[in-house]
Amino acid sequence: MSYNIALQFEDGVSRIISCDADELVCDAAYRAKINIPLDCRDGACGTCKCHCESGSFTMGVYIEDAMTDEEADQGYVLTCQMKPTSDCVIKVPASSAACKTEVGTHGSHLQSINRDSATTVSFTVKSELPVAFLPGQYVNLLVPGSKDTRSYSFSSAPNRLEQSFLIRDVPDGMMSTFMRHKAQVGDFMMFTGPYGSFYLRPVQRPVLMLAGGTGLAPFLSMLLWLKDNPPAHPIRLAYGVNTNDDLVELEQLNALKAALPDFDYFTTVVDAASGHPKQGYVTSHLSAHDLHDGNVDVYVCGPPPMVEGVRKWMAGVGVQPQNFLFEKFSSTNETGAA
Question: What is the CATH topology of the domain spanning 105-195?
Answer without folding.
Answer: Elongation Factor Tu (Ef-tu); domain 3 (2.40.30)
